[in-house]
Amino acid sequence: MLYYLIKTKIKIRQIIFTYWIYFFYSFLNGIQIKRKCKFYGNTKFLKFPGSIIAINSNCRFRSDLLSNTFGLYRINLISTLSPNASIVIGENSGFSGTAISCAKSIKIGRNVLCGANVTITDTDWHSLDGMEPKTEDIKIEDNVWIGANAIILKGVKIGKGAVIGAGSVVAKSIPSMEVWAGNPAVFIKKISNND
């Protein structure tokens, strides 16, 4: 009985937040959110004037603690930091308490899944010598799995079908169909058809 009450509460909150986010962020604030996206709990968008945030259809954003019981410690936060920044998210991707912060370009492919509390940022945010922080594009290709609490740093390209282990810090590009994990992330194994 309790299970069904919780499931009903999650569904009601998902409907409310989905309509709210479509109205407030998409209609009023120019975030491009395609059809059939679902928001479980609140997702915050911070869009720098002139920048682009585009989310393709059938994506899922989980910020509600009941919708992901792994241990979310924050809501989804998607932000652009400059007028030329661009975040593009492919179809059927999923995020749980994920922070995506973009000063230049972050492209996320189709069917990308981010475990709880993943961070993706294309900038150093500040430098130690007073100069401008370094910023480099990030590209995450289709069918990538990024484990909980992983951090994806500037200049990284993650190839199709790659798997990033939980808690990893990814500071360099990762080829397709490989498993990487650790801090810093290192090669673990190739992914075969039998895996």
How would you describe this structure to a colleague?
The chain has 195 residues and is an alpha/beta fold. Helices cover 14% and strands 33% of the residues. It has one helix at residues 2-28, and strands at 32-33, 38-40, 43-46, 52-55, 60-62, 76-80, 86-89, 94-96, 99-102, 105-108, 113-116, 119-121, 138-140, 145-146, 151-152, 157-158, 163-164, 169-170, 178-181, 186-190. The strands form three sheets. An eight-stranded mixed beta sheet has the order 2-5-8-11-14-17-19-20. The chain is globular and about 50 Å long. The model has no long low-confidence stretch (mean pLDDT 93).
Secondary-structure blueprint of this entry?
Elements: H1 2-28, E1 32-33, E2 38-40, E3 43-46, E4 52-55, E5 60-62, E6 76-80, E7 86-89, E8 94-96, E9 99-102, E10 105-108, E11 113-116, E12 119-121, E13 138-140, E14 145-146, E15 151-152, E16 157-158, E17 163-164, E18 169-170, E19 178-181, E20 186-190
Parallel strand pairs: 1-4, 2-5, 3-6, 4-7, 5-8, 6-9, 7-10, 8-11, 9-12, 10-13, 11-14, 12-15, 13-16, 14-17, 15-18, 17-19
Antiparallel strand pairs: 19-20
Gyration radius (Cα, Å) is 17 Å
Number of helices: 1
In the predicted model, the low-confidence regions spanning at least 5 consecutive residues are: none
Number of β-strand runs: 20
Overall 3D form: globular
Q: What would you call the structural class?
A: alpha/beta
Q: In percent terms, what proportion of residues is strand? A: 25-35%
Reading the helices and strands in chain order gives HEEEEEEEEEEEEEEEEEEEE
Helix content range: 10-25%
End-to-end separation in angstroms reads: 37 Å
Strand arrangement, largest sheet?
Answer: 2-5-8-11-14-17-19-20
Oligomer: single chain
Q: What can be said about the biggest beta sheet? A: 8 strands, mixed
Arithmetic mean of pLDDT: 93
